[in-house]
């Protein structure tokens, strides 16, 4: 008598068939399509790895702990999506832009508070202490036409690698954030400190996953932008600091070569005084190129 | 100029390659295998459905809400696994038993408190009001040998379809639960009420999913068992009440024909008096068949 006979393929696909049938009457056709695909791929995954009951329980516990880690200032499921490359894949799939337009990249988990409206030229580094910099450029159309009145939502970590929401006791709300409006020639400029590479938060389940897999949690230094103008497709992107560590091994797979910009060191007491920055400082100049909405 | 050019296949698989490489140095070979498979199947799913950013955000919100629904008495991720057929699939994959042994089925989300130790014959219906029943049988080996001292962990919903942990204000802890030890001939028996079909909890994200897909949330009436004996593989299973509604459309896909048992109506004042039950009552008789642990 064979006591260890493996369950047959028929039994293992019967459940899949039943689940697919259970979703067959979903009235929303898109939801029906998504759930049918989810069922097929999820069941394929389970049949592929053949988890033990204990492994299945670990997966349930991992997802539960991930959910419990989420609150108003922490989004562990976005982090999980990020470190599994899903956020970047979704981003790539939705990137239908013209070659000339600025590349997009992931939103990330820290765009959770509204950026304060600021005047062009404002310093978004409300704390000080980091290496000062000035970031400037133009928002233009793919044919080079300036886009006056374009909006730029900017957010970045400080020189120690932390966002305001991560250090409410140390950073005032809105530190490193600003909502700017480009001038009549589409120009923008603001002051800040050079951002630092930083680890994504590692004190939750995603951090445990990275540790168990020998992956470092660091992201290369970057400034986030969401840029929009009437009649144009908005772009969600980062500008990465050239020369930063981890450009080749971003923990969330979000680096695109086209988004790496030089933060050039400027040693000019006159210019520094004019800008209201300490000397020396760094300067980054780049344009954001938007494409018209397809009618 | 083609402004709507779709992102190429190369870009869409590049992220997958990067993620697979990032997990390549995981020291635990099983974890490495699971994460590689997860990455491939999850990315295949995403490429298959091509979610918009808004759809991706809805998925993040759904998982977050599912996590927030979990606490000491509610496990929404198990419910999600159940209604997607994953729990039953994992159960089927791990069912390496001999044909003669009792079939297993899913654990379900309500085995979260320890069942109180009870004497054989005890009534696990501490509230009363339902249709009384007596459940009896033997725990035996695949060759028919009785298994004295076998343990039976039993839990069930009441006649209104609720478990004790769902109604702490109405049901005393341990209502519908009992941990029994079979006698010297492997026999067990206890009293209860006939369980009712019931909806899985619908006030969370899983309930919203069922509603959006036109699926009912009901499970056919059943009693849960985990039965073990020294030297034998334990079985986690249900006994379903023959004739119950929803046997053909269990919301969690857990019905196996071999687990459906008659709860026969008995009209005998003498027997009822002897059992300490109201007349008429119902009687279910079945054996639990375990197989030896493979050395």
UniProtKB/TrEMBL annotation, chains A, B:
InterPro entries per record: 1_2-HQD/HQD, Catechol_dOase_N, Intradiol_dOase_C, Intradiol_dOase_core, Intradiol_RC_Dioxygenase
BP terms from Gene Ontology: catechol-containing compound metabolic process
UniProt-listed CDD domains: 1_2-HQD
Cofactor: Fe(3+)
Pfam families reported for this sequence: Dioxygenase_C (PF00775), Dioxygenase_N (PF04444)
Keywords noted in UniProt: Dioxygenase, Iron, Metal-binding, Oxidoreductase
Gene3D superfamilies noted in UniProt: Aromatic compound dioxygenase
Gene Ontology terms, MF aspect: catechol 1,2-dioxygenase activity; ferric iron binding
Intradiol ring-cleavage dioxygenases domain: residues covered: 135-163
Entry coiled-coil feature ranges: none
Family per record: Belongs to the intradiol ring-cleavage dioxygenase family.
Alphabetical list of PANTHER family matching this protein: DIOXYGENASE, PUTATIVE (AFU_ORTHOLOGUE AFUA_2G02910)-RELATED (PTHR33711), INTRADIOL RING-CLEAVAGE DIOXYGENASES DOMAIN-CONTAINING PROTEIN-RELATED (PTHR33711:SF7)
Official protein name in the record: 6-chlorohydroxyquinol-1,2-dioxygenase
Species assigned in the record: Streptomyces cyaneochromogenes
């Amino acid at each position: 008598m064979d006591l260890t006979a493996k369950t047959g393929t028929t039994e293992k696909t019967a459940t899949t068939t039943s689940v697919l049938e259970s979703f067959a009457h979903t009235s929303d056709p898109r939801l029906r399509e998504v759930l049918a695909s989810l069922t097929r791929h999820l069941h394929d995954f389970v049949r592929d790895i053949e988890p033990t009951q204990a492994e299945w329980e670990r997966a349930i516990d991992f997802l539960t702990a991930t959910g419990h880690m989420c609150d108003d200032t922490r989004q562990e499921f976005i982090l999980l999506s990020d470190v599994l490359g899903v956020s970047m894949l979704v981003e790539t799939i939705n990137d239908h832009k013209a070659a000339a337009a600025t590349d997009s990249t992931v939103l990330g988990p820290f765009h959770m508070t509204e950026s304060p409206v600021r005047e062009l030229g404002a310093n978004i580094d409300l704390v000080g202490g980091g290496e000062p910099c000035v970031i400037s450029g133009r928002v233009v159309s793919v044919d080079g036409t300036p886009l006056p009145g374009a909006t730029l939502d900017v957010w970045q970590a400080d020189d120690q690698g932390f966002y305001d929401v991560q250090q409410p006791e140390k950073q005032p709300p809105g530190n490193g954030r600003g909502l700017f409006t480009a001038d009549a020639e589409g120009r923008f400029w603001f002051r800040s400190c050079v951002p630092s590479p930083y680890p994504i938060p590692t004190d939750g389940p995603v951090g445990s996953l990275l540790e168990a897999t020998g992956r470092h949690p660091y992201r290369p230094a970057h400034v986030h932008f969401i840029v929009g103008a009437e009649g144009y497709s908005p772009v969600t992107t980062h500008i990465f600091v050239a020369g930063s560590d981890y450009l080749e091994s971003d923990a969330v797979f979000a680096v695109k070569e086209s988004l790496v910009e030089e933060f050039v060191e400027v040693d000019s007491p006159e210019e520094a005084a004019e800008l209201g920055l300490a000397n020396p400082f760094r300067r980054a100049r780049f344009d954001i190129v938007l494409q018209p909405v397809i009618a």
